[in-house]
Write a structure and sequence with these properties.
The chain contains eight helices and 15 strands. An eight-stranded mixed sheet has the order 4-3-5-6-7-8-9-10, with helices on both faces. A five-stranded mixed sheet has the order 12-11-13-15-14, sandwiched between helices. It is α+β, with helices and mostly antiparallel strands. The protein has two domains: 3-186, 2-Layer Sandwich (Fructose-1,6-Bisphosphatase, Chain A, domain 1); 197-319, D-Maltodextrin-Binding Protein, domain 2, CATH 3.40.190. The protein is globular, with a radius of gyration of 19 Å. The chain starts with a helix and ends with a helix. Helix 5 (210-221) links the parallel strand 11 and strand 12 (232-233). Bound molecules: 6-O-phosphono-alpha-D-fructofuranose. 6-O-phosphono-alpha-D-fructofuranose binds next to loops.
Amino acid sequence: MELKEHLRAANAEAGLIKIFEAIEQASKVVQSEVCRAGLGADIYGAKGSENIQGEEQQKLDVYADECFIKEFRASGAVAGMASEEQDNALQFDASLEGEYVIMIDPLDGSSNIDVNVAIGTIFAIYKRISPVGSPLNDADFLQAGKHQVAAGYVNYSVSTQIVCSIGKGTHIYTLDPKSKDYHLIKESIQFPADGKVYSINEVNLDDFDENLKRYAQHCKDKRKADGKRMYTGRYIGSLVADFHRNLIKGGIYVYPATKDSPKGKLRLLYECNPMAFLAVNAGGKGSDGRQNILEIEPTELHQRCPFYVGSPVMMDEAIG
Ligand code: P6P
């Protein structure tokens, strides 16, 4: 079943279906460039500019951002969007009957582009708060994650997949390279309750709070009945790739506050909230280490926060 048909069968609103058509189209354009990195168009490497985060933008970061802006603007369903690559939120023509706003990380893990490792697009979709047709304001974008009406990611990997939820389960769709359509391959995937994989960059170990140091040591020390290690570490440096493996096999991903990133590195609105929405709709959990991350009331567009997401048993063990 194609993605659009599956959404229609789930009674998704017409505007949401238009948005997912835009995501499908933009992701196919990005995928065709990602898989050609180094060939033809000069899209490898850094663009020679920085985003508002002060991070060096890769050429594909900017290219992907432009692709999604174009398709969302053309969809007629999106009033505006906030992007990791844009200092401020973009407002599309206010006269459009766009009922939705979108937060997006157009290409997460872009440092992996040059080494041919999986990267992703992460998006969160909300109903606008301001009246349709009027100018957007900050409140439209600074909504708690629990108000998301949909979220998802595109995983540009061995195959290109969209994993998304409209609040009724989390589903996986694979792009058929021949038909160029996304087809449902897994409906209502469930995060395994427990798992054996932890994804943490332990170069920051000395910065971890005592509780996380305890948990990291627990993962190192825990043995099975046969004396073999219980856990293994897997950290790809691409949130989408690590999350996707953990969603299927069971596991936990943690990016805590560190000396380099005292508020955490990941962004609440377009990385943590959408991934937590997917996790919760698959029976998993998402937290900032203290509370359900979907309850946090945002104050800034690009605010960062510590992030724990994964199998519920592992999350309870890690957070205590
Ligand atoms: P570090 C990529 O930049 C990203 O936002 C996530 O996709 C990834 O998990 C993390 O940062 C990697 O950060 O500091 O461990 O290299």
